[in-house]
Amino acid sequence: MPVWRKPVAPHQRTSLRVVPLAFLALIAIGTLSLLLPWAHRPGQSIDALDAFFLATSAACVTGLTPVNVAEIFNGFGQTVLLVLIQLGGLGIFTANILLVLMTGQRLSLADEHTIRATVGRLRQVRPFDVFVYACIFVVLFELTGAVALFVQIAEAAPNQSVGRTAWEAVFHSVSAFCNAGISIYPNGLVHWRENIGILTVLEMLVIGGGIGLMALINLRYYYFWRRDPRRRGYLTLQTKLSLFMAAVLLLAGMLMTLAFEMNHTLGEESLRESLSWSFFHSTMARTAGFNVVEVGEMNPPTLLVTLLLMFVGGSPGSMAGGIKTITFAVLILTAWSALRREENIQIFRRRITPSVSSMAVMLALLAGLVLMAGIGLLMISERESASSQTSQHWLGLVFEAVSAFGTVGLSTGVTPLLTASGKFIIVLLMFTGRVAPLMLSVYLAQPAHRRRVRVPNEDLGLG
Length: 463
Description:
Elements: H1 10-35, H2 48-59, H3 69-72, H4 75-102, H5 109-119, H6 127-156, H7 162-177, H8 196-209, H9 213-220, H10 229-232, H11 237-261, H12 271-284, H13 300-312, H14 325-339, E1 345-347, E2 350-352, H15 354-381, H16 393-405, H17 420-445
Antiparallel strand pairs: 1-2
């Protein structure tokens, strides 16, 4: 008997194409702009492949760079990168919610409640309202971060011009909140690694950008000091899990980095700096990409921990990439419930439906398959390249692939040494890692296909 499936409306198919087409258009414009002669410093130039690579990295807020941005690009070129980062980050911040609304589907009741609390209890959630309030959050975070960085940089570099200080503050504030990790210093954030104040501001911006739009709206309208529950509001399960997983991953990443690097890259540093740099690395490994310690010099166990952090990434609906913290949490809860022989998956006095668990497994499986394909292709393309001579060759390629797919931007130093084929593979991983989750979120928001005929159940043996 044929299975009935609900036909996909034309406007839904059109909406699904919006994200990849928009990002491709942004990347194309960015590539052409970065190739313009007046975007480069005197005597400097960049080839088309590197411009395409860098435009993709900026638009997908990844941060991998095949060239030194500070040495190649002048103010105009750096402005192009800033615009690409800002537009790409804003698109990521709002696209998944906007596309769900554009396809005619409903958000969860919890998400609709938080949006209505923000926009004044509208009868219907409108895409324009979501976009406007997303812009407000982005501007507030980035403006606050720019002011804080300006104060810190002005104090640390009093002889620098006000204009230059302001530009550095704005660029790094936007790059940090959008989780891009691109810097305009020749040696990156190593330039300020002794300044804990600047590192702290960048950390707060990265964490804020990695929480997610719905969680930020929910936190904005949660008045924890009020005794009356009706006037206090409530935190959704999404917000609670996002905050809990972020705290756990940040702390675990810091402690493991500190333990594995205490007698290596942090061996000659004070305890204060070791703690600061370990927390900074843990924060940036969750899709920001700034670094204050050379990643290529870190111990393999530290790189392994970093790989896990990059693969998980940040929260859904945020600037961050990866499979997302909620997906990782659901996978752990599913395994824990199966181990305890419990049918229901519960946390924070709430039950997670089996469909959410199935989606988490699917997302993790697809991400793993894409990464395996990307790593395999890199191993083939880079067999005779200069990157094969590095001390972390195979691990470096794996690290590069996960960093690209998770839109992180950390590298063991392999990026500039990649062949043309290797760079194109990394571009595909960056684009897939950024666009595919948004497309899947829209697809999974559509009603499930119901089969009219149910076939008999039969158990399978596992393990």
